[in-house]
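Severity: low
Component: inverse-folding endpoint
Summary: output formatting inconsistent between runs
Steps to reproduce: submit the following structure tokens with default settings.
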């Protein structure tokens, strides 16, 4: 308990002092994880909608793969991305390894199955006759998609929370493809590992508290939006 209290005091001191290193790490965390979540939404929502509404041979297999991806260990995904981006890999010429773009790529792959799965479940919960009903009322394709999205908005917000929560808290993939380089690819999770290995437990706890507060703030905003929509 004493170490936890010391960590809380250290977190408060770092925040009030406006520690430049902490600010850079926190902003980098938001940039990397936010970008990965946004890209996952742009790809995952249409794919999830298509899986929910379409009927084709092998659909169950695809859904099984999506569900498996939702539980895939991030360090395994980081290893696969590392093998693809390392100099001897098929995309080594792009020189993306140990960069923020490599971290975004790995976190994007982690988040996509979650977004697809939550979106598919949200759309499947809608009445199956709803698209035909909207079409009979004169709604075009884009208008129908917008209205269906509004009906499934609670599930879509849950998809955002699940995707962002998964990537902002993971450490294995970020460490593997980003390298945890000071001032370049170090984010809050990898910084916690670094400070712990150095025996700086107070600072590691402080970084953990700040990461928790950041994730809490994002999820609180999305939860407030959910409740407002419910009302």
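Observed output (run 2 of 3):
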């Amino acid at each position: 308990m004493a170490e936890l209290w010391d960590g809380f005091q250290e977190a408060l001191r770092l925040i009030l002092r406006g520690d430049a290193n902490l600010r850079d790490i926190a902003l980098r965390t938001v940039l990397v994880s936010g970008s990965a979540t946004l890209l996952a939404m742009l790809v995952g929502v249409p794919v999830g909608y298509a899986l929910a509404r379409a009927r084709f041979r092998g659909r169950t297999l695809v859904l099984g793969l999506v569900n498996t991806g939702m539980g895939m260990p991030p360090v395994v995904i980081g290893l696969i991305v590392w093998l693809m981006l390392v100099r001897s890999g098929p995309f080594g010429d792009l020189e993306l390894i140990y960069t923020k773009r490599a971290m975004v790529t790995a976190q994007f792959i982690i988040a996509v199955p979650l977004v697809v799965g939550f979106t598919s479940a949200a759309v499947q919960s809608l009445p199956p006759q709803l698209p035909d009903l909207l079409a009979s009322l004169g709604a075009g394709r884009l208008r129908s998609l917008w209205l269906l999205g509004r009906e499934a908005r609670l599930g879509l917000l849950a998809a955002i929370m699940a995707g962002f929560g998964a990537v902002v808290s993971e450490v294995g993939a970020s460490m593997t493809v980003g390298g945890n380089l000071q001032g370049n690819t170090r984010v809050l999770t990898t910084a916690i590992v670094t400070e712990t290995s150095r025996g700086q437990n107070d600072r590691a706890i402080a970084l953990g508290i700040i990461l928790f507060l950041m994730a809490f703030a994002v999820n609180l905003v999305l939860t407030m939006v959910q409740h407002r929509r419910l009302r």
